[in-house]
Amino acid sequence: MKELIAFARELIQLPSPSGAEAPLARRVVAEFKRLGYDEAWIDEAGNALGLIRGEEPGPGWLFLSHLDHVDVGDEAAWPHPPFSGHLDEEGRIWGRGAVDIKGPLAATVYLKAFLRRRPRRDVYVASVVEEELGGRGAEHLVKTMGERFGAAVVAEPSNLEVKYGHRGVARVRVRFSGHPHHAALAAPGENPHQALGRFYPRLAVARVRTHPLLGKSQLTPTVLKADTESQNRTPGKIELVLDWRTVGESPEEMRAFLAELLRGLPAEAEVPELWEHGELENTPGFVTPPEHPLVQALLLARRRVLGEAGPPSLWFFATDGRYTAAAGIATAGLGPGDPRLAHTEAERVRAEDLVRAAEVYAALAEGPFPSS
Fold first, then answer.
1. Collapsing DSSP states into helix, strand and coil, what is residue 341?
2. Where are the domains of the chain?
3. Fewer Cβ atoms within 10 Å of its own Cβ: the N or the C terminal residue of the chain?
4. Among 228, 233, 237, 241, residue whose Cα is nearest residue 178
5. CB neighbours of 2 closer than 8 A, spacing ≥ 6?
6. Which CATH architecture has domain 2-166+285-366?
């Protein structure tokens, strides 16, 4: 459908970094209205919402995406300008957000165009703010409207395969301390780099928790900062950020785990409380059993549109489905695009896949509402 593809390209051409989503939210609401949604509005958090009223009473569908994207990185590394929405000869749309999240967002909005009849239950389409910062928009949506949703479909990229959960994500700080001195003195006992060097081998062999469905917990060092920029001075403090993909660990368990890894080292760890998000974050994952009626209904809708598919699986990254699932709303997902392209300078999505995703969403909304 040409209109859907044009809309997706336009969304990419409108930058919407976290905290600056308002222009995009207004554009999404305008498209809701143009397509004939029964209601369309922006809530107090800045989320864009559209409603298609169903024929039956009761909690309805939520099709969930987000408005914000990460930065473009090295703009010179892009084969096409990151906000061009370039459509190439192979039918691929390029740009920041093509996969995460403006292609999937456009597909959710356009499910209305593929409905052959009014759905049985209300259908809410929501694109929320600050997903990339931990989910402030989804948190607000669930708190204010959660009772209206009986099932949530998270429209994050999945190569059009059904997903039923993901690990949690926490970002924790570890601070290594020493005594700054002139580098020419070479006092290794006072240099926090030495303690950091002893920590890495411990981290590499640490025994992490394993979940029967989510798999293994995972800690990955990311950002490293020192309190000096002088190349001939040792630092007094070094701060390491760990990206921790969790499988149910409590903050207390996480602190105990790090305390053991840091035993005997001049270091301390900072672990956020659960549901904290921002610069540091600690939000849980979720698992909807693959045999759950929602997962099965989504598989059936996908088969009707696309034919047979592989078994449902997990996302390797976190989504706002953590908020809907925690609120007791059955949650699963499917979206167009290769998730491995998200946050890269090669971000692109097949235009055809946007249409297919919208068709799957419409087929799901037209079918029987899944009962748990």
1. helix
2. 2-166+285-366, 168-282
3. C
4. 237
5. none
6. 3-Layer(aba) Sandwich (3.40)
